[in-house]
Amino acid sequence: MLTGAKTFKVRQMEPDMKERMLSQSGDSARSRDLVGLRCLPGECVLQRVLMVRKKLTSREGRGWLSGTLFCTHFRVAFVPQDCPNPPDNADPVLLGDHDVALASIEKVVVVGPNRTKLVTPSSSLKFTPEELLLYCRDMRVVCVLFDRLTPDSQVLQMTYTIAKSYQPLKPGSVLSFQNAALGSVEMKQLLSNRSRDSHMNWFESVQDWEQELERCGAVGWRVSTVNERFEMATSLPRFVVVPQRVLDTELKKSFAHFSEGRIPRWSWRHPRGADLLRMSSFQNNIYHEKDDIRNLELILFGGHSSLCVVVELGEELPSPLDIQLAHSRLRALCLGDVSSSVSVPDDKWLSTLESTHWLHCTRLCLRKASEVCCLLRTGHLTVALQEAEDRDMGCLVSSLVQLMCDPHSRTQLGFQGLVQKEWVTGGHRFCSRLNYHRDSDKDEAPVFLLFLDCVWQLWAQFPSRFQFTEDFLLALHDSVHLPLFSTFLSNSQRERLKRTQHLGQLYTRVEGWRDLTLESRDGCDPGCDPPLPPVWDWDLQYSQERQAGFTQPVASPAPVQPLLNGNLNTCTALAQNTLRITDTIPGSVFLLSRGSFTCPPHLPPWRSGHGSAVYRKSHRRAPSSENVPGLERLLKAWAQAEFPHSLTTHLGSQGLLDPYEPLLPLLMGPCMGLWRQCYLRGAIHAQAFSHPLAPPQPHPVERLAQEVQHLWTRLAQVSKNPSSPESPTCTDERRVHGNLNQNVNNSTFLFPASTNHQTHKTTPHTACTNQQSSNSLPLQGAPASCPPVRGNDSHKSTFLFRTASPSETRSKERPRAPQTKSKPPGPHTSS
Amino acid sequence: MDKQIGAGAGAADGAGPNRKPRAQGTGSSSNGDGLDSPTGSHVEWCKQLIAATLSSQMTHSAPADPNRENRVSKRLPYRNLPALRYGAQLKMSQNEVPLLPGENVHITVKDVMYICPFSGLVNGTLTITDYKLYFIGVEQESPFILDVNLGAISRLETISVPNQGENTKGLELVCKDMRSPRFAYKTEENHPDVVKVLSQHTYPLTHSMPLFAFLYKEQFPVDGWKVYDATAEYKRQGLPNESWTISKINSSYELCDTYPSVLVIPTNISDEDIRRVAVFRAKHRIPVLSWIHPETQATIVRCSQPLVGPSDRRCKEDERFLQIIMDANAQSHKLTVFDARQSSVADTNKAKDGGYESESFYTNVDLNFLEIPNIHVMRESLRKVKDVVYPTIDEAHWHSAIDQTHWLEYIKLLLAGAVKVADKLESGKTSVVVHCSDGWDRTSQLTSLAMLMLDSHYRTIQGFQVLVEKEWISFGHKFSSRVGHGEDNHSSSERSPLFVQFMDCVWQMTRQFPAAFEFNELFLITVLDHLYSCLFGTFLYNSEQERTAQEVQTKTISLWSYINSQPEDFTNPFFVDYEHHVLYPLVSSRHLELWTAYYARWNPRMRPQVPVHQTLKELLFVRAELQRRLEELQKEAAAHSLSSSSEHSPSHTGTPLHSAV
User: Fold this and answer.
1) What SS3 state is found at A748?
2) In the Cβ-directed half-sphere of B495, how many Cα atoms lie within 13 Å?
3) Chain A partners within 8 Å of B595 (Cβ)
4) I need a labelling partner for B175 at 20 to 30 A (CA). Which of A5, A45, B349, B468 fits?
């Protein structure tokens, strides 16, 4: 590396200086610079090659796109030839649609005539590359074709520049990347002025947790501040939710009994009244006083229930090492490397995929989560997820369970809140697991990526039940590989806050301050590390158009009313009976492991007296679960029962399905899919025939979307024309209308995989078909006979179809539903 | 949030493939296999456990089913479905067997056990009609129903059923559509033998009885036999032109008995020469035009192998014939011959008097072998697929098991071959000759797939029907031999699932281009079901000549009558007609999938979670509604803009419209 470095320096610095001057010559660095790339504040263009062609993936419509290639300190950017100039006043977006951050490049490969070569910072090329391949950590592969007319020197310089600056990850390199991206004064200023999305729950204050308790209708729980200064447990969030009955003084004694002090704490409440708890393993070497045991029991049994099932997560789930191995195999398989020339023959593809065990890992996680869902559905019990450290699978299973059971967590904001709750504040060791600093190789395990894959599996099986889309998952997946976000760069909330404290307050809340114990507002110090935004600040990463694709374009129906006593349908005598009886008898703890219940002999000495008796009884009563793996049986029974027209009649007689009915995924071999849109994005060997000269055609579905969008806009125009401005209802209509158009802007309006989300649109419609057709009939023949019917609200919905009616109902009936409020259209910057 | 809605769509019954020909009842065993309430039983086990645990602790508890509420809402009886508009005129016989017009019950046996591979034994009544086997469970509420049409049965096997008593016999129906239901029944003295009756009606041709298609008496408002008119189709392609002519030379099937009566051949070649060419081609299947590119005039020509033989025979007329075909396309001075076979097999064939075009005799001809294995390999491969998907699916080794069937590998070969053909035409602007040995198996697959890629017309519902009628049915794909309609020769080496393979390729394309096809998955599955069912005359017999002789068109009904009478069931709401788009599917196995919705559909654990089909149908409706509204509003707007230019009264025509906004 050193040998070549000097010569490069000379060659390289010249354009660098020139470009730097170019790029900063404007009055504002934010404006689109002369060379066509819109730079971030402080970003310098190192190298530029004109007339390159970038290969588009099948998702982008295949084919080739011509434009200009840039390499800056921060990214490799590609600007398409005739891309429309973004408005100058728009906020900078870190990465354009075609850009790759240097830190997410894993390796650089050049293809020359008859040969390919891996380019390292120290390598020198003996041939002129025709093609440049950038293999990214997020499993993208960017393929760029140089023009034959481009001077060789330019191509070589570009290659060397990228190779030298992409920085193969090593300890310390992340920091310099962060500085390159966010370190400029302007960027720091910008970041420190950003407000954060107040519509999602960040789980960082007492109020946040209380709001969640209220949303879930969990009674008998309170937010405890014993850990506010992380004195009790460093990896726990500052606030933990514990039963009301337990006093803080009692609570404090419990921390010692759990590994890392991660005591059982409330995560979520199933609307049927079951609570979901998480905890780490017991510390057995500590003497249990009688009081302690009583306290533990109080915590475990939560507010109400007599029954507690401890679900052991260690046994049947993949270990972090398994996950890491599986993921690296999957990467190797999917990226299909041209430089190594080891590629999987086509006829072995599926077998090789199977041998990565990645799909097996997802299946295990989903299976465990389904099991827990089934338990929760029974109501009136506490399910405690127990894992040795409670920082990996605990996060994963707990959030999967909520995703399956809670429609709220299937909205974008709800999902973000879920990740905040279970992963970010929950103490998942993002930094070590993702190994950003290359200093924790033995801890590396993409548990969070496994989680995203599980979510995708659910999404793929129930696309119509999710408000967010595959695009959102993809965006999150890619962001994980970008070491810029505070969300992923710390191992615990404590670390995160320490860093913020060090840097000073960066984020101001829109709704003012609630607790400012830790943070201080020193303002930002330009000398220190750049401030890191949370990943949820999507405006920073993606354009509005891309963000629009994160959610289903159709207004989702009104959320289910939070139920204060948590009982959806248990007004039956039975449920009340159970409650009354169980309230009087002392609780018992069961261990669910390998699909069967046991009364744990080796948990702390609860009920050790008559535990064995219960053990025998329960065993005898469920003999079948001994030999057959439990969920297999469960799912078998389920799948056999589940067939479509039973659903029909079920619905026919009962109306709507219970929205809290868990989404139980099918886990059979054929049902576990490969997330092609993510893992096979880079597959470059796919196309049988490429037509480099063919213009990129829009994806067929996109064109359909455009057609429908066109339809809508035409409808809008047509309907606006005749409308007289003085109408009192007019403004109102326009507002609704604006929303509509905004929704329709979404390019994934009719995205193929989300086929079923159209259901949203259609079904409310079916409900109002009658009304509608009856409305539209007079409409057609109306003009003469019907005088203007102003203020007749019922007519309004006819034009807007179903899309409008849910949103209208929502705005009318539920004016205050903070967690479900749709995002205001504008960007969230308070400039 | 949106749960009610997704479920609401689910409500509307029609999920997935299982439902499709409800009237014809091809097989809604979907119905069966499960006996419990929809929501409950998944968790039943858990609940029972916990209930048990609870009750074990309580001295007196009322362990009533905690799931009661869910179960109260039992399903309505099976038949309470939105009736089909056509084909729904079911006669109900006394024991509730839905019958098609013309269908008769032949035997009803009580106390039959269905040995369900998924949920154990089901007791019920078995009815055999001349069209189907119908099993209904004894359970009063929501009985189990299994419906197998006899055409789908490949062979009947007696099996041993232990532990069921002395007089119990076992029967396994090995079906062509990837399932093998098993029954156990009691034999009684004075009772006619079920198996005998069953085999009689399963193999009517073996027992010199007519196929059910000739008994079926349904009336459809659309006549599917009118879908395909060869001359009209060639006219659509711009034929005849100066180089190609629509010939009547085979009008009485004299030239070639497996070809259709209407053929397109080069203009300037004499009948005499054609007869010589016919002698030189296997089964007299001369090169004829299948498709012509509207712009470049490059053509897809199909034929059978030349009878070159070990002695390298030549036929001057044949060589000239290919030369003329090449000359008909001014854009290229080459002609590409795609031989679908493996080159080694082609050589073997050459030794047996067959062969391939030698590049030294045929000037300017490029010969390519597509290396596709023969029909026997395909049959074996699909048999292996069946082993993988029915009855049990090995969860842990699913992917490697699929690899070992090689089915996807063959799909890939076929698609890759078709892409080569299409690309040669589109990008190379070169005419193409496709053949295999006889030119009715792999050739049909390749030409029809290539045409599907090249010509958007074939991606519509009607166009696809024309494609199948033309490239498969009229050009003599031996449906009768390959499928074995009504014949008890299940071990015949003539059988092979080539049409299934073709449909699989089409499905793969629909997966990759979800908006490019007017038909949906249900359409493909329905066509495949009726490939076996013998309900319609469409796929019967081996050639047009046989069909004419049997008067298929007058005595049976076309499958397209059924489909075109209810197009909304088979339409893809995402369809956009890309008129001049050539579709090149990705053929890497990374982008191919096993069509589980077809092959594994009998497994109740494979049902889609969301009622896709119903959703699509609703979406279709929405789309039509939007379109209608747009037109309506445009009309209004047009009227308005006229009037608004003159006056601005609030009460003019536009206003009511506005208030409706």
Assistant:
1) coil
2) 19
3) none
4) B468
Taking the C-alpha atoms of residue A198 and residue A413, their distance in angstroms, rounded to an integer, is: 10
Task: Please say whether the beta carbons of A134 and A105 come within 8 A.
Answer: yes
The better pLDDT of the pair A560, B148 is held by B148
Q: Which two tokens stand for residue B604?
A: 């109740």
Q: Which member of B4, B630, B661 has the closest CB to residue A723?
A: B661
pLDDT digits (tens, 9 = 90+) for A569-592: 322 323 333 333 333 334 566 777
Q: Which residue has the tokens 């080694």?
A: B344
Report the C-alpha gap between B532 and A34 in whole angstroms. 68
Query: Coil, strand or helix: which one is B289?
Result: strand
Q: How many residues does chain B have?
A: 661
C-alpha distance from residue B526 to each of A536, A670, B18, B219, B598 (Å): 47, 22, 10, 19, 10
Task: Point out the residue among B7, B612, B627 whose CB comes nearest to the CB of A755.
Answer: B612
The number of beta carbons lying within 10 Å of the beta carbon of residue B555 is: 14
* B593 close to B407: Cβ distance less than 8 angstroms: no
State what percent of residues in chain A have pLDDT above 90: 20
Tokens of A661: 């009915």
Q: What would the two tokens of residue B58 be?
A: 């309580």
Give me B89's structure tokens: 């005129």
Terminal Cα distance for chain A, rounded: 44
Rounded Cα–Cα distance for residues A620 and A613 (Å): 11
Sequence-distant (≥ 6) Cβ neighbours of residue A759 within 8 angstroms: A464, B2, B5, B6, B8, B9, B610, B615, B618
Cα pseudo-dihedral A640, A646, A647, A651, rounded to 10: -150
Distance of CA B184 to the CA centre of its chain: 31
Q: How far is B427 from chain A (nearest CA, A)?
A: 9
- Mark out the alpha helices in B362-441 (DSSP H runs): 375-389, 398-405, 407-426
- E-strand stretches of A73-200: 75-80, 100-101, 105-112, 115-119, 131-136, 141-145
Instruction: Quote the CA–CA distance of A135 and A531 in Å, as a whole number.
Output: 28
Contact across the interface for A651 and B7, Cβ inside 8 Å: yes
Can you give the pLDDT at residue B553?
A: 94
- Terminal alpha carbon distance of chain B: 26
Beta strand spans in B205-354 (E): 244-247, 263-266, 288-292, 299-303, 335-339
Query: Which stretch of A175-179, A253-257, B377-381, B607-611 has the lowest confidence by average pLDDT?
Result: B607-611
Q: Would you tell me how many other CB atoms lie within 10 Å of the CB of residue A742? A: 14
DSSP code, position B30: G
B46 in active site: no
Is residue B629 less than 8 Å (CB to CB) from chain A? Answer: yes
* Residue B190, pLDDT score: 66
Q: Which helix (H) or strand (E) holds A175?
A: helix A173-182
Answer whether A462 sits within 8 Å of B54, measured CB to CB. Answer: no
CB-based contact (8 Å) between A696 and chain B?
A: no
CA distances from B77 to A514, A656, B139, B143 (A): 58, 19, 11, 8
Which residues in chain A have their CB less than 8 angstroms from residue B610's CB? 461-465, 756, 759
Distance CA A4, CA A2 (A): 5
Cis amide prior to B391 (ω within 30 degrees): yes
CA angle B530, B531, B533 (to 5 degrees): 50
Confidence of residue A593 (pLDDT cuts 50, 70, 90): low
* SS3 call for A78: strand
Q: Is B59 on the interface with A (CB under 8 A)?
A: no
Structure tokens at B4: 């009610």
Chain A's closest residue to B402, CA to CA, is A350
Shortest Cα distance from B171 to chain A (angstroms)? 23
DSSP state of B299: E
Alpha helices in A758-825 (DSSP H): 758-785, 793-813
pTM: 0.78
